[in-house]
Amino acid sequence: MSVLPASVQDISEGLRATGYLPGDSTALVSFLATKLGKPVLVEGPAGVGKTELAKALAKYLDRRLVRLQCYEGLDEAKALYEWNYRKQLLRIQTEASDAGWSKVQDDIFGEEFLLERPLMTAIASKEPVVLLIDEIDKTDQEFEAMLLELLSDFQISIPEMGTVVATSHPVVLLTSNNTRELTEALKRRCLYLWLDYPALEHELEIVKLHTPDLPDAVARKLVDLIAMVRDLDLKKPPSIAESIDWARALLLLGAQDIDPAMFRDTMSVIVKHRTDLDIVTERVGMKVGSLGSA
Ligand SMILES: Nc1ncnc2c1ncn2[C@@H]1O[C@H](COP(=O)(O)OP(=O)(O)OP(=O)(O)O)[C@@H](O)[C@H]1O
Ligand SMILES: [Mg+2]
Fold this sequence. Notes:
Blueprint: H1 8-17, H2 24-36, E1 40-43, H3 50-61, E2 64-69, H4 76-79, E3 81-83, H5 85-94, H6 101-108, E4 114-116, H7 118-124, E5 129-134, H8 141-153, E6 155-158, E7 162-165, E8 171-176, H9 184-189, E9 191-194, H10 200-210, H11 216-231, H12 240-252, H13 260-266, H14 274-285
Parallel strand pairs: 1-8, 1-9, 2-5, 5-8
Antiparallel strand pairs: 3-4, 6-7
Helix pairs in contact: 1-2, 1-3, 10-11, 10-12
The structure holds adenosine-5'-triphosphate and magnesium ion.
Adenosine-5'-triphosphate (ATP) binds at residues 20-22, 46-52, 175, 177, 206, 240-241, 244.
């Protein structure tokens, strides 16, 4: 049985129970998405929990997660459906030579010869699913246009077979890293959620959730330092994913404090560009000692 949240509070607690700590706007938009049946476009920098939100929603709503990973050159055959040519060919070959073409044709363009790709799977599913269209900004505008039709009508037409209409309405999440501007037409059809780096207390909570055994004071110093590093003008500021990795590394090393030596030795977990490392060493490395020990 799939779950339907009764309030924003409900969905917020439900997501927490799956291990995802939503901010206020995340809980609100997720709630509206389940109620209004509109797709959600989630944008934000790398590693702030865009993909994870879809996974957590699927878990909480007790629905299957159907995921379409986008990439440059992704086409309908890989996103919607494709005919299983080999199987069709075999079917034709096994047919007695005097069989009529129309009979064979009716047969080989049936469901049995169709290879479902994620969008078709989500539309055709009898049980409602969560559909994640991940990193939509990696595809081109033609693909986006095709998607628009699907997202407004929730149906796919197959010329040889007819139209497949969604019987259960999927919750749809699209994510984007903002590498290109998406079309207005797409944005208009979606609810919008901007996910940013979290506030200190929120990030502390996330870090503690992932590494409950890390000493409190170390976790606090970690999020303070991460915030300082993010304030610098870096090529790639550390994301939540890096905060968690750092917390795990510190836990493994048995760190009781992040002193200057520990910071120097482990900072490559959070900073991953040669030039960024230099900036962080110079600007934050100096201050680590004076932050007070844990
Ligand atoms: N609110 C949160 N609560 C708990 N964990 C979180 C939260 N936000 C992010 N995380 C953790 O951060 C990590 C990165 O998240 P995720 O993979 O969803 O990032 P993303 O935004 O999809 O990044 P990318 O753009 O690189 O794909 C995950 O391991 C996830 O568990
Ligand atoms: Mg992602």
